[in-house]
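To whoever picks this up:

The parser on our side crashed when reading a file containing two proteins. I've narrowed it down to the boundary between the first structure block and the second sequence. Both blocks are reproduced below exactly, byte for byte. First block:
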Amino acid sequence: MRIIRDYQFTTPKDRGASAAIGNFDGVHLGHQAVIDLARRAAPDAPLGVMTFEPHPREYFAPDAPPFRLMSAEARASRLAKLGVDHLFQLNFNTALASLTPRDFAQNVICDGLGLSHIVVGADFCFGKGRQGTVEDLKAFGQDMGFGVTIAELLETGGVQVSSTAIRTALSEGRPRDAAQQLGHWHRIEGEVIGGEQRGRELGYPTANMSIDGLHPPKFGVYAVLVEVMDGPHKGTYHGAASVGVRPMFDGQFPNIETFVFDFTGDLYGATLSVALVDYLRPELKFDGLDALVTQMDADCDQARAILAAL
């Protein structure tokens, strides 16, 4: 998959794509439906996705609490798995945010990227002040020569599929409900970083990853599926992970610490994708290390049973 970050600097081979447009945070079932429409609208054209980095919400409210379900890198990885040929991950800046709806259609969609067809959700707004509507987009397409398809909002189980609903499910410790809307397990991806090695001293060495910038799921212990995405230990594993601030050790900054079952080796610097399957229990502060280890033994036994049944 080719990633294009500036609509003003493209090559001829980047042009002519049929592209879905949106933020695609989580790449949930609704997003996948929009992408599939783009694929079917022009089956002979390259399949594209246009999105923005940073997320416009981050740009306009940089001090707001973290809300993203996935990083830009995790989103690109998921889109590549869906067969996207071109990811137009446009730099969201003052210049782009200041374009009128017509200028966005002309300068970005038509002249810059040369898209042959675009697909957007029924609630899509664009241009300065989000003034452009899907009806405006259809009119611009007729004037400028690109096709437009409007995707109806998707529901599952009588609930509208949305990133907001997925965040709520994760905040409440319901990863399976989040997965029903995502169409895949919710995953936290990132590089394994150095920790204080307390887990190793307790017989439970963990792979530590930051969750900075991401919407935090409910703090506690989870049964997880682990994918080591690179390095000599590349592969898939089962495990148990703790998300939170480590109250037993007076931690302050939330992270995720994953114990990979039946694994020996060094994961420092590797990229992991940790899928939350089931919430087991909240974070707790124990009377001592022996009580903590006893609970960790029970957590891992429970996680093994859950994951064996998948």
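<<boundary where parser fails>>
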Amino acid sequence: MIPVFTGAGHRVIAPDLFGFGRSDKPVDESVYNFEFHRNSLIKLIEHLDLKNVVLVCQDWGGFLGLTLPMDMQDRFKKLIVMNTGIATGEPLTEAAKQWIGFCTTVPEIPVGGLFACDAGAAVNPMDVVAYDAPFPDNSYKAGVRKFPKMIPTDTNDDAVRYGLRAIEYWSNTWEGDSFMAIGMKDVVLGEPAMMALRSVIKGCPEPMKIAEAGHFVQEYGIEVAEQALAHFGLNR
């Protein structure tokens, strides 16, 4: 995605959440909670004084990121959203329960292996290595272990509190332009979840559906970015 955006003359800020990528990885799982990550994103936006933002989000980037514009309305202008959702406190799907169960019982979560097994990912061995690279051993994976446990399962969760506010914002206040792409082979955050999300995003057009993509729909980022920029009229 990034080369497409920068090639069209746009600035890209792509933060790694704490616990992932090149960001710090606290070893204490109690550090990882919804407000910690949400507040870190807000502070980043304020520190860089970002304006006219096109929010690009997927998975937890969406569960967190979709709660930001409601409190920073003058900074966000457009949205690109992929295989994610907004926490509502509704019962988890069976697929989501199985994912949480796997992550809470397996001795070590195989990050690269999960990517390699994703139904729609066009797997390249070097990509698998890249997904594993930020985690030299299991001690680096506190965030990887904690995030599945952060999936909200009741209405008292902080994520739900922010999520319900976000739904109100996206349904009634949002005036920006939106673009949605769906990895159709994702069994947890695929078409049903994304169409539910589309129903609450004011003015969201028909989504781009990528039949061969699974959860890691960002691996098809070039075509997603190209179509999104064309939709927004921001391509050269």
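After patching the parser it read the second block fine. The CA atoms of residues 77 and 176 lie 5 Å apart. The mean pLDDT is 94.
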